[in-house]
Amino acid sequence: MGLGVCLSVAPAALGARAWAEAVQYGPELEEFVYPYPVAQYTFSSQQQSLHMAYMDVHPQNPNGRTAVLLHGKNFCAATWQQTIVQLVQAGFRVVAPDQIGFCKSSKPQQYQFSFQQLARNTHDLLSSIGVSNPVLIGHSTGGMLAVRYALMYPEQTAQLVLVDPIGLEDWKAKGVPSLSVDQWYARELATTEDTIRTYETQTYYAGEWRPEYEKWVQMLAGMYRGAGKQAVAWNSALLYDMIYTQPVVYEFGKIAVPTTLMIGAKDNTAIGKAAAPPDVQKQLGHYPELGKAAANAIPHAHLIMFSELGHSPQIQDPTAFHEALLKTLAPAR
């Protein structure tokens, strides 16, 4: 049994120290086993050959619809595991990719990262496997990507579900100072399981920590312990620069597909917040207000607020989250 298999099935009682001693991954999350088979979409982009990992899960009783799950910045396709189960049981075909620069996909050392490029990559992947007009469910940074995809391909997007999307405010305009890619890189090289766990506790889970969250900490930390740490950190730095410099908030009014926002009211995510002056920090990441403003800006948007949840409601309270998700995905009667 490999390390990835151990990680997939290890009991919650296994302590963080045991995880740390056992887990080390390469730059493409080698040895970490995903909950469903992983395929690779190989393509040429920016004069280089890249591959994009994805899971493509088919239901026993299909409803004729496909859901595409877009992960966040510190997440992977695997973190959608519980959501995939629920959607497949409801009859959806589910496609969950790892974007370029993340997880099991390529880590190019020279790449012009943009949400447009990631949307094109995703669209081409979906076209290659016969998926058109999907429901896009984007979490965190995946929410920014889902918005860009829907703006680029409005006739090929059935519905948009944004789960605690970042990009509901323009951090640069609000006074968060710019960091160079080199500064982001130095910051990312300092990543440890402790820094990951502390950040996730405060932001993703509203200050509450449970043992079952540990495997997602170790999924990320394992890549920073491995021989490919520099490649992982460099791609992460490029991606943070993309997120900071490419706001989508000004284009919400142009979204032309049915949209639902699912917001954890205790989320306080803001990119670069730690580098901002204290008075600026206080103005950032107020998700109850940001969610309402986004719902007002997006035509005919529907807002679902989880009053006690943080940035990752699908992990923190999967029962409540999936009940609400399936309701919003139900066909209009």
Automatic annotation (TrEMBL):
<keyword id="KW-0378">Hydrolase</keyword>
<dbReference type="Pfam" id="PF00561">
    <property type="entry name" value="Abhydrolase_1"/>
</dbReference>
<dbReference type="GO" id="GO:0047372">
    <property type="term" value="F:monoacylglycerol lipase activity"/>
</dbReference>
<dbReference type="GO" id="GO:0016020">
    <property type="term" value="C:membrane"/>
</dbReference>
<feature type="domain" description="AB hydrolase-1">
    <location>
        <begin position="68"/>
        <end position="316"/>
    </location>
</feature>
<protein>
    <submittedName>
        <fullName>Alpha/beta hydrolase</fullName>
    </submittedName>
</protein>
<dbReference type="InterPro" id="IPR000073">
    <property type="entry name" value="AB_hydrolase_1"/>
</dbReference>
<dbReference type="InterPro" id="IPR050266">
    <property type="entry name" value="AB_hydrolase_sf"/>
</dbReference>
<dbReference type="GO" id="GO:0046464">
    <property type="term" value="P:acylglycerol catabolic process"/>
</dbReference>
<dbReference type="InterPro" id="IPR000639">
    <property type="entry name" value="Epox_hydrolase-like"/>
</dbReference>
<dbReference type="InterPro" id="IPR029058">
    <property type="entry name" value="AB_hydrolase_fold"/>
</dbReference>
